[in-house]
Design goal:
about 650 residues, Rossmann fold, 9-stranded mixed beta sheet
Amino acid sequence: MTLAKQFAAYTQWRESLSSTIGQFKLWLSDNELSDAQTDLRLSQLLERLREDRLNVAFVAEFSRGKSELINAIFFADYGTRMLPSSAGRTTMCPTELLFDGNKLPCIELLPIQTRASNSGVTEYKRFPDEWTSIKLDIDAPDAMQEALHHVSETTRVAPDEAGRLGFEVGKGEIDLYRVGDDGLVEIPRWRHALINFPHPLLKQGLVILDTPGLNAIGAEPELTLSLLPNAHAVLFILGADTGVTQSDLTIWKDHIGNRGASKRGRMVVMNKIDGQWDELKTLAEIDAEIKRQAESCAEILNLSPAQVFPVSAQKGLVAKINGDAELLARSRLPQLEAALSEELIPAKQDIVRENTEGEFGDVSQRMRGLLESRLAGLREQLTELTELRGKNKGVVEYMMGKIRAEKEEFESGLQRYYAVRSVFSTLTNNLFGHLGLDGLRQLTGKTRETMMEATFSKTLADSMSGFFAQTRDSLSKSTREINEILAMMDAVYKKFAVEHGLKLGSPTTFSLLRYEKELDRLETWCNEHLGSMMSLLTTDKKHITNKFFEEVAVQVRRAFEKANKDAETWLRAIMAPMETQVREHQIQLKRRLESIKRIHQATDTLEDRISELEVVDKHLLQQIQELEGVAAQVRQLLLSDEARLIQAA
């Protein structure tokens, strides 16, 4: 199965999952089981599934055939080249291919001059007016090809302007930015490009990131801080005709290879092997030569040879378009697609499965507990009323007094519930005091002042280290508050379960570990690119300060924003079961008391009331069965392939 077909199958699975959860949400509403919190959680879950994206990044120096490889893997079924592919440099700025149904097909281009500001590309995405938009006529291939060539545009600026925009002039042999005879430097015209195109794969949520070479990666830290680390797959492309050049090795070591450590979804592609197809050599000799090249690349990059995939993207594209199976096999593109499918799709599916499983499982379990609580309360009423058959009025009065006392006892116990709410509110305020964005804003402002006033390099380094130390301390204090909330709610859940028979289970857990790891990653990047002794001694203080706040501090803020959102969701989730059960228990006690009162006033209503409750009993059993049926459908979709095979066996 090709990667495109595998991705289509994944998309169909995700849509089936979304549809089934949507049916569950509708069923809860129709059966008057939903509340504001449950409805919000399921709506957010459905929104995440709808907005799910599969991000694949292609990284290489120029003239390695990135664009042709993208065309061959993803767009061959379109019957032509989606991206321009020719000799020389075709991609001058990072380019994202995606589909947004709220916009017409177009190319949006961010001017290179925006690099002079203190804002990253992600910030600029919030301001459409800053981008130059060019319409794409999808019914006119020639016009579309012409429009797509805008990503290759350059402009000429003075050397000091080039440096100000992040393009160091004349630094090293591999640098492309040199002063011409006219005294100017040629640099990319655009900082970033967004291509909104209604291709079937893009419509299904595929996002492709095509990156320029080393110079552009180094000049745009957001690529290495956010876009590349968050990609589900990164394909690093080498040329079979060039091998591993010094600039290739720099990109690999600094931005992808993670010092030789393997990471899921990271692959090396040795492209243009058709250059070895010498008619004077046998196929065995050609294959041996390609194997030697792949092994050499693997050794230089400190990889296993199995992680290097020799291909001919150009021949693979031609073979797919012309239906030439023999040429396709010789291009070796199917092996790369198979490896990418085995790595990429299952990894992405596992992430979606894990996130959905926890959220849906908690909601469905809570709904099951609610129905079982209602059923238990109803059967308690039935037992009480059945025992009243043939009894005199005094017994009915005794029973009424007993229920009234039970109701008063529960309401007295509610004082503890309100006390818990008060403590919960205090702990929540403490949590957001540490995790909230106000404290981070103050820290960011203070750090900026210190760095701007710094006289020595050590002060700059200490300020950046202090920033991370304090943000990490905030996460540590937040974790302590989370553990305290969790311990308190666990004790309260158990107490109310014992004293009042509430079915609360165990409180939902929560961890900030992922955000701690994100801080570690950002600090490591900062130390390597901004805080190294070489950087501190050779780079202007203002430049280091601006880069730290434009790129690093922005990423820290985003991490804290996500942590705040996740914490808010968790806090609602941990309190919701108790609120629901307390409210339900109050309703059940009230109904029991009202039933006895009615029977006390007119004994002939006893049998009618018992009949009514028996009908409700059957209805509740039916609801539990229906709930389990809908939940089972979701659980079946969430099973991994291995679990499904075991289940079938």
